[in-house]
Automatic annotation (TrEMBL):
<dbReference type="GO" id="GO:0006098">
    <property type="term" value="P:pentose-phosphate shunt"/>
</dbReference>
<dbReference type="GO" id="GO:0004616">
    <property type="term" value="F:phosphogluconate dehydrogenase (decarboxylating) activity"/>
</dbReference>
<dbReference type="InterPro" id="IPR006184">
    <property type="entry name" value="6PGdom_BS"/>
</dbReference>
<dbReference type="InterPro" id="IPR006115">
    <property type="entry name" value="6PGDH_NADP-bd"/>
</dbReference>
<dbReference type="GO" id="GO:0019521">
    <property type="term" value="P:D-gluconate metabolic process"/>
</dbReference>
<comment type="subunit">
    <text>Homodimer.</text>
</comment>
<dbReference type="InterPro" id="IPR006114">
    <property type="entry name" value="6PGDH_C"/>
</dbReference>
<dbReference type="GO" id="GO:0050661">
    <property type="term" value="F:NADP binding"/>
</dbReference>
<keyword id="KW-0521">NADP</keyword>
<dbReference type="Pfam" id="PF00393">
    <property type="entry name" value="6PGD"/>
</dbReference>
<dbReference type="InterPro" id="IPR036291">
    <property type="entry name" value="NAD(P)-bd_dom_sf"/>
</dbReference>
<dbReference type="InterPro" id="IPR006183">
    <property type="entry name" value="Pgluconate_DH"/>
</dbReference>
<keyword id="KW-0311">Gluconate utilization</keyword>
<comment type="similarity">
    <text>Belongs to the 6-phosphogluconate dehydrogenase family.</text>
</comment>
<comment type="pathway">
    <text>Carbohydrate degradation; pentose phosphate pathway; D-ribulose 5-phosphate from D-glucose 6-phosphate (oxidative stage): step 3/3.</text>
</comment>
<protein>
    <recommendedName>
        <fullName>6-phosphogluconate dehydrogenase, decarboxylating</fullName>
        <ecNumber>1.1.1.44</ecNumber>
    </recommendedName>
</protein>
<feature type="domain" description="6-phosphogluconate dehydrogenase C-terminal">
    <location>
        <begin position="180"/>
        <end position="310"/>
    </location>
</feature>
């Protein structure tokens, strides 16, 4: 099974699985690998059954399946896991081989990895992947950056699987160093702002105007037919009117605490470093921090009940 695969992908969570199936649909042979190898067997027996996807039980075996220059893409948790996999891959690869990080890594980490891999003759790429699980399966937006020598070897795959707008792939080389992950970071930061605006619109409609869920859903549906047309407005319209099995609106049952993976915070930090005012994104991050302080907010409400209805 040597020299059969066009690319290998490490990390078989849903995003990884869907990217593999997307690549397969576009005629590329993919070798799947996961740290817990039983997940490889399960993927081949279920989601990838009947496809040309192949699996590997070790990194050594994975590398042996690859055509040269070898292309290895990782979709693993940002931080330590990325560096650990790089350390394991370096001894197995040769000069000119390519390592791609498709996770949400900090752009400074990506810039460091580009330099470290270059010293060992390897080409490192940090690529933003946008569109969620559905996008990964049917067409994501891809933002590759890093060592430019890698682009000719990954361009056919990336531009084939990417979403298309006006006939053009939603993917192009965005720059050297950590540029790919910087663009994805800012992209996510903008989404933080979009979601905060949606939350504040919901709050005003519900608490100030006394609108019901169906009525609010209709407003978002109208907005989605104009210049505010977007994925986030569209799903908000659906979420607001969705009812649980008991007939009550599900959104009213959801705990009012928002988590975050870090990209919005990193955008705000970068903006401070570069002296660029992105106040909406900064306030959106602070709102998420505040929402997570459930116990503190409960105590504060006993002392500061807020304005009475007028």
């Amino acid at each position: 099974m040597s020299d059969k695969a066009d690319i290998a992908l490490i990390g078989l969570a849903v995003m990884g699985q869907n990217l593999i199936l997307n690549m397969n649909d576009h005629g590329f042979t993919v070798c799947a690998f996961n740290r817990t190898t039983d997940k490889v067997d399960a993927f081949l027996a279920n989601e990838a059954k009947g496809t040309n996807v192949i699996g590997a039980q070790s990194l050594e075996g994975m590398v042996r399946t690859l055509k040269k220059p070898r292309r290895v893409m990782m979709l693993v948790k940002a931080g330590k896991a990325v560096d650990e996999f790089i350390d394991k891959l370096v001894p197995l690869l040769e000069k000119g081989d390519i390592i791609i990080d498709g996770g949400n890594s900090e752009y400074q980490d990506t810039a460091r990895r580009v330099e470290q891999c270059a010293k060992k003759g390897l080409l490192f790429v940090g690529s933003g992947v946008s569109g969620g699980e559905d996008g990964a399966r049917h067409g994501p937006s891809l933002m590759p950056g890093g060592n430019p020598a890698a682009w000719p070897a990954i361009k056919p795959i990336f531009q084939s699987i990417a979403a298309r707008a006006n006939g053009e792939p939603c993917c192009d080389w965005v720059g050297e160093g950590g540029a790919g992950h910087f663009v994805k970071m800012v992209h996510n930061g903008i989404e933080y702002g979009d979601m905060q605006l949606i939350c504040e619109a919901y709050h005003l409609m519900k608490s100030a105007l006394g609108m019901g869920n169906d009525e609010m859903s209709q407003v978002f549906e109208t907005w989605n037919k104009g210049e505010l047309d977007s994925f986030l407005i569209d799903i908000t319209k659906d979420i607001l009117k969705f009812k649980d099995s008991d007939g009550k609106y599900l959104v009213e049952k959801i705990r009012d605490s928002a988590g975050q993976k870090g990209t919005g915070k990193w955008t705000a930090i970068a903006a401070l470093d570069y002296g660029i005012p992105v106040t909406l994104i900064g306030e959106s991050v602070f709102s998420r921090c505040l929402s997570s302080l459930i116990d503190e907010r409960a105590e504060a409400s006993k002392v500061l009940p807020g304005p009475s209805n007028t």
